């Protein structure tokens, strides 16, 4: 009883395997996403300049865009250089916007004196603004035309 079932499954698997090879051979050459051969030298993408000044938000509760370069900012488990200007203890003397008070709430809603661990990595939500073309099309429009 077991032998005919195993033999049948083996024959089916072999047929599918060789059929797949035939289909793979007839589909043509593999196309690269790069758009050129590996040996070809492609021009480097244009470097888009950082935009200065604040941008308007596109929707309510949108995290603000960062209006300055963050290339040299260290943000890791021990250090967050954004807080050297934007923490509530430093923002006034540095002339920087302070963090929202929601950044000082833990998961249970308890008010903390330091930034909550869930809000520590600023670049999870906030990104530098750059004058770069959109990677994909976008037809987004605010629902009431205001920010």
TrEMBL record:
Family classification: Belongs to the NapB family.
Coiled-coil residues: none
Signal peptide: 1-24
Record flagged with keyword Cell inner membrane: no
Protein name: Periplasmic nitrate reductase, electron transfer subunit
Species the sequence originates in: Tropicibacter oceani
InterPro entries linked: Multihaem_cyt_sf (IPR036280), NapB (IPR005591)
Annotated Pfam families: NapB (PF03892)
Function according to Swiss-Prot or TrEMBL: Electron transfer subunit of the periplasmic nitrate reductase complex NapAB. Receives electrons from the membrane-anchored tetraheme c-type NapC protein and transfers these to NapA subunit, thus allowing electron flow between membrane and periplasm. Essential for periplasmic nitrate reduction with nitrate as the terminal electron acceptor.
Keywords: Electron transport, Heme, Iron, Metal-binding, Periplasm, Signal, Transport
Location(s) in or outside the cell: Periplasm
Subunit relationships: Component of the periplasmic nitrate reductase NapAB complex composed of NapA and NapB.
Lineage: Bacteria, Pseudomonadati, Pseudomonadota, Alphaproteobacteria, Rhodobacterales
Source species, domain of life: Bacteria
């Amino acid at each position: 009883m077991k032998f005919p079932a195993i033999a049948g499954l083996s024959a089916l698997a072999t047929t599918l395997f060789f059929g797949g090879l035939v289909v793979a051979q007839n589909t043509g050459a593999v196309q690269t996403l790069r758009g050129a051969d590996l040996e070809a030298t492609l021009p480097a993408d244009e470097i888009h300049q950082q935009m200065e000044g604040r941008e308007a938000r596109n929707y309510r509760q949108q995290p603000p865009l960062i209006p300055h370069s963050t290339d040299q900012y260290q943000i890791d488990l021990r250090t967050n250089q954004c807080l050297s200007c934007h923490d509530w203890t430093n923002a006034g003397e540095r002339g920087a916007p302070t963090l929202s008070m929601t950044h000082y709430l833990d998961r249970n809603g308890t008010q903390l004196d330091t930034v909550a661990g869930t809000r520590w990595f600023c670049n999870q939500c906030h990104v530098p603004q750059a004058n770069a073309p959109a990677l994909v099309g976008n037809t987004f429009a605010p629902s009431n035309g205001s920010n």
